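S.,

Sequence below, as promised.
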Amino acid sequence: MATRYKNPGVQHTLCSIDPGKRACGVAIWTVGEKSSLVWCGLIKQRDGDPLLLARKILKKTNGFCVYFLEDPQFYPHKRKAHGDLRSLQKVVKFLEMEGARPMVKVKPVGWKGNLPKPVHHKRILQHLNQKEKKLVPEDHNVRDAVALGLFAIGRTGKGGTVRDKERGN
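The prediction came back faster than expected:
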């Protein structure tokens, strides 16, 4: 499994996913010479069954894409949250088992750093065109999925920062 997304240089679909216990933020992108957000939303599974949640995501994407997702990370000082993290890891595991390939996983610190969500979400909106902004709801899981996609396709750097090439450097 890859740890960095590499654009294959041909038109394709990328699905960025922020895994959740009962719902996942999902963003679907067309990637090519010009990349654009085509859909984003929350895919839910009320009972929290990670296998059914993974299957719903694969159904939405038709399985024909590159999957780029946040890989849940354990932090030694946040032991109470680890039960939820295990649920998130199950969603990721079932996506892999059900055929979500190719898949690229990135730890939170690798794509967003330690930036607070409100600051990060405000930054990422600056990297979307007007048509794309209209697609993005207020939901923080969906906004994380959109931010992951922006990072994957190279529109943003870590933490939603402007890439050097956008600055003209």
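Helices lie at 50-61, 82-97, 108-111, 117-125, 130-135, 140-153, 164-167.

Coffee later?
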